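Dear support,

Our group has been running a series of protein-ligand predictions, and this particular one with LLP is the one our PI (initials K.S.) wants archived with full inputs and outputs. We had some confusion internally about which version of the output was final, so please treat the block below as the authoritative record. The input we submitted was:
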Amino acid sequence: MDHFLYRDGALFAEDVPVADIAAEVGTPFYCYSTATLTRHFRLFDEALEGLDHLVCYAMKAASNQAILKTLAALGAGMDVVSGGEYARARAAGVPGERIVFSGVGKTREEMRAALEGGIRQFNVESEPEMLMLNEVALGLGRVAPITIRVNPDVDAKTHAKIATGKSENKFGVPIARAREVYAQAAALPGLQVVGIDVHIGSQLTDLAPFRAAYEKVADLTEALRADGHDIRRLDLGGGLGIPYTRSNESPPLPMDYGALIRQTLGHLGCEIEIEPGRLVVGNAGILVASVIYVKSGEGRDFLILDAAMNDLIRPAMYDAHHDIVTVAEPAPGAEQAPYDIVGQVCETGDTFARGRMMPPIAQGDLVAFRGAGAYGAVMASEYNTRPLVPEVLVAGDRFAVIRARPSFDEIINRDTIPEWL
Ligand code: LLP
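Confirmed final output from the archive:
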């Protein structure tokens, strides 16, 4: 459920007509709903009620500080994967003790910054990382709290580019070698083992792979405890999928996911962390664009939009489907026609949808990409010197620009010209 609904013949973001925002901000822009963000975060929080838990929002999905502040005020922790994300979370007021640091390639500098600024735990992904973290921690006279990310060799049954839990993926240490690696970690004085971490992939629409992974984590918890490790925290990653089409998808709900966690791991008495990203923010955001031209082609018609692949890369990168709706509500029973919906960038990959059935639509009309809140704005680039799309946050009948569109001068002046030119 989200808060982008038609009312009086027009698409609203909560109580604000989307067309009003477009008139003020110009298109394209991303628009987020505070009510949807709040609702989705709470669904996870409530799903784990009764268990000692922390929902660490995977801020890679959408990292604007206004979004982070909204979630932090509800009690969210953050899952960060870079020094930049760590700094951003801190700038948004998230305390270090609510930040977990994931990622396969943490650098010394990133480790140092997090240790100095405060960190709940590092999710360590390899032996060389473990050795480096030990060194950095000792150099600072600190002890780094860690989990080790295990790779459970489970097929997440999702798009190959976002599956992470198979043995051929670059993530984590093979679960079969976990006891050995934990023994090494325990011998390093700069590290303190606090738990286990696992994350098997993103946009999972079935609970079975989670069950398979979490059952392995339960067994491992017992084995590691028997080896003398103090396993008191389980970080279960993110990955719960969202419906990208309104009609035919019904992925499991956070409540079902919570029940699964209870069933597979509840008996262990561990503190539970989860790292959802997409489900928190995906359907809490839309990308609004204008139709520049309706172009008749050879046997097909094109809608050429002012948004392009640089603004929303998911269709080009993962063949992802996003529902695209007109901001003016179509008349009931309006006849639909197929369009290839494309952007302005000079490559054929810049295609959002092929043969998409759309209601009557004309030059200048506004459209909205649904489900664009996660991995939308954060994956945008300035390819073709197209300015990064602004972001807007709505709360009830208010809205605010939370990241402004840069001017051409701001973009151009980032380059510096060597003195010999
Ligand atoms: N934790 C870790 C360690 C992760 O790698 C990820 C996502 C998450 C949590 C959050 O997963 P989520 O709940 O959002 O599924 N750009 C791709 C998705 C990449 C996901 C990367 N890792 C897309 O647009 O589909």
